[in-house]
């Protein structure tokens, strides 16, 4: 078993709550990686005993001196759309001059994705995965939704499953052009043949419950069909205006409802009384100039909040979780510690994972060494590449 000992960590974010601190912060800390798991976490003084024990066992364990820098868990990005073809930079440019965002632009990416080969999509996806790792993301979800035919949705799910276990079937992204006058027929297709083709590659089922996409009744039917195929539900909701996305997600026991830009008091109360995570996607508001979600309101109400990138070519073409942290602090009322927790442990909750998002014995050895003394610097120094070293499953990447 390969082992690595990180010592002289100035600030360690464990996300194991202690003394009222959800981040479970340790100073002058050390971490032992054993294989793909965390073997031990403790103080620098205790690390001397670990070094001595390792020396006696003659394992040849390398020791990494963090030099007083901060270490955090790897980011958990619980909402991405990374398998697609084409580009929509012109839409972004138009929005910056006043054109409002609309869900219909998804159909442009659908056309480009259908035209791309498997090898082209696979190569682009590999580039995005490298990009994620370089920015400290070690666990990530990928949605389908840019194929919208049985064959294309199946291949997107299959390609996504090559790089992550967290694959979401999103055949209900929008109604494709060829079904514009036959919405019911498309919903039938999603609930039957398309689900049967995609379920073997997927863990989750999602639906865009929003004006311009799918109604609450259609969304409920699609989610129920996904559950019947053994998938767990998620929801895109309340992005473009007030709607039924949040109430549907809570009623269906969804792991998360994502966007949550427009919420009323009933939505907040429902989320606070449920296990459904509110996943906020500040990159979308940055790119579309919509109002940012009110994270402060949600946290103060007792709602579990996650941050994710929503990396996609239309409304948030960024994979940077450090940017999400900075935007959440600057624009959404979160403290730096709350934002880092939401981008790590919160993302794990949104994926219903208890093996990532924290640093404790038995957890996946997913760590990020920052070129900074504290996690606060992720918001304090926005745009600066502070990720120095990343370990994913105990392997430096």
From TrEMBL:
Q: Which keywords has UniProt assigned to this entry?
A: Cytoplasm, Histidine metabolism, Hydrolase, Iron, Metal-binding, Zinc
Binding annotation for Zn(2+): 79, 81, 236, 310
- Which Enzyme Commission number(s) are on file for it? 3.5.2.7
Q: Where in the cell is it found?
A: Cytoplasm
**Where does the Amidohydrolase-related domain start and stop, copy by copy?**
71-377
Q: Which family, according to the similarity comment? A: Belongs to the metallo-dependent hydrolases superfamily. HutI family.
Q: What does this protein do?
A: Catalyzes the hydrolytic cleavage of the carbon-nitrogen bond in imidazolone-5-propanoate to yield N-formimidoyl-L-glutamate. It is the third step in the universal histidine degradation pathway.
What is the protein's given name?
Answer: Imidazolonepropionase
Organism, scientific name: Microbacterium psychrotolerans
């Amino acid at each position: 078993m390969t082992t690595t000992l990180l010592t002289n960590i100035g600030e360690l974010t464990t996300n194991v709550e202690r003394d009222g601190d959800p981040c479970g912060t340790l100073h002058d800390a050390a971490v032992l990686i054993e294989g793909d798991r965390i073997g031990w976490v403790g103080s620098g003084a205790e690390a001397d005993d670990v070094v001595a024990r390792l020396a006696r066992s003659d394992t040849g364990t390398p020791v990494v001196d963090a030099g007083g820098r901060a270490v955090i868990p790897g980011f958990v990005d619980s909402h991405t759309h990374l398998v697609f073809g084409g580009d929509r930079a012109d839409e972004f440019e138009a929005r910056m001059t006043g054109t409002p965002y609309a869900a219909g632009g998804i159909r442009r990416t659908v056309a480009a994705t259908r035209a791309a080969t498997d090898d082209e999509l696979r190569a682009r996806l590999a580039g995005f995965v490298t990009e994620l790792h370089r920015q400290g993301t070690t666990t990530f979800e990928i949605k389908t939704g840019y194929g919208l035919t049985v064959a294309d949705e199946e291949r997107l799910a299959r390609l996504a499953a090559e790089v992550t276990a967290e694959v979401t079937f999103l055949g209900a992204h929008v109604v494709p052009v060829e079904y514009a006058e036959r919405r019911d027929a498309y919903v039938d297709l999603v609930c039957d043949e398309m689900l049967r083709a995609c379920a073997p590659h997927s863990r989750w089922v999602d639906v865009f419950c929003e004006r311009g996409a799918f109604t609450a009744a259609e969304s409920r039917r699609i989610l129920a069909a996904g559950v019947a195929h053994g998938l767990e539900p998620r929801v895109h909701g309340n992005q473009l205006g007030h709607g039924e996305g949040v109430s549907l997600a809570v009623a269906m026991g969804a792991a998360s409802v994502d966007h949550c830009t427009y919420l009323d008091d009933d939505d907040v109360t429902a989320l606070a009384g449920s296990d459904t995570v509110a996943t906020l996607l500040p990159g979308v508001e940055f790119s579309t100039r919509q109002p940012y979600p009110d994270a402060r309101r949600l946290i103060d109400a007792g709602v579990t909040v996650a941050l994710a990138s929503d990396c996609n070519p239309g409304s948030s073409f960024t994979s940077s979780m450090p940017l999400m942290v900075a935007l959440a602090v600057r624009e959404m009322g979160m403290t730096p510690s709350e934002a880092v927790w939401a981008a790590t442990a919160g993302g794990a909750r949104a994926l219903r994972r208890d093996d990532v998002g924290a640093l404790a014995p038995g957890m996946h050895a997913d760590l990020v060494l920052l070129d900074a003394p504290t996690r606060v610097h992720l918001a304090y120094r926005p745009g600066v590449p502070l990720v120095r070293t990343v370990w994913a499953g105990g392997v430096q990447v």
